[in-house]
Design a protein that fits this description.
The protein is an alpha/beta fold. Helix content is 42%, strand content 13%. It is built from 6 helices and 4 strands. Strands 3-2-1-4 form a 4-stranded parallel β-sheet, with helices on both faces. The protein starts with a helix and ends with a helix.
Length: 125
């Protein structure tokens, strides 16, 4: 029971195209918090613009270095939190503080069970 609660994602998607405005609105979500490496590889500026235009905030939360995260995020004009120390929740908290949002308004995307999923579950998202 504990393993499923903290180490099993609530949902699985193969591509960002499967996240759309209707899905986010249906679940009262306003924020996409995403990991960087192995997660945002397929992210493109068209999807970013579509989600931002629809009123959604997008922010990267990564354990990677400031230099690496900043370099990527500047290209797509995304806000970010580097050195997040996931699975600790401090990075997620800082991200939502930057956006002035609440945890219940967020979804968290990531590829690692021990950092992204455990961190999101510990944060209550």
């Amino acid at each position: 029971m504990v393993l499923k609660r903290y180490f099993s994602p609530d949902d699985f998607i193969e591509k960002y195209e499967f996240i759309d405005v209707e899905y986010m609105n249906m679940h009262n979500k306003k924020v996409i918090i995403s990991d960087l490496d192995n997660t945002l590889i397929s992210w493109d500026s068209k999807r970013d613009k579509k989600m931002k235009k629809a009123g959604f905030d997008i922010i990267v939360v990564s354990n990677n270095t400031e230099e690496r995260v900043e370099e990527f995020c500047k290209k797509l004009n995304l806000q970010y939190v580097a050195g997040a120390k996931k699975p600790l929740t401090i990075g997620f908290k800082r991200a939502l503080q930057k956006l002035n949002r609440k945890p219940e308004e967020a979804i968290i995307l990531g590829d690692q069970v021990l950092t992204d999923v455990l961190g999101a579950k510990s944060f209550g998202v």
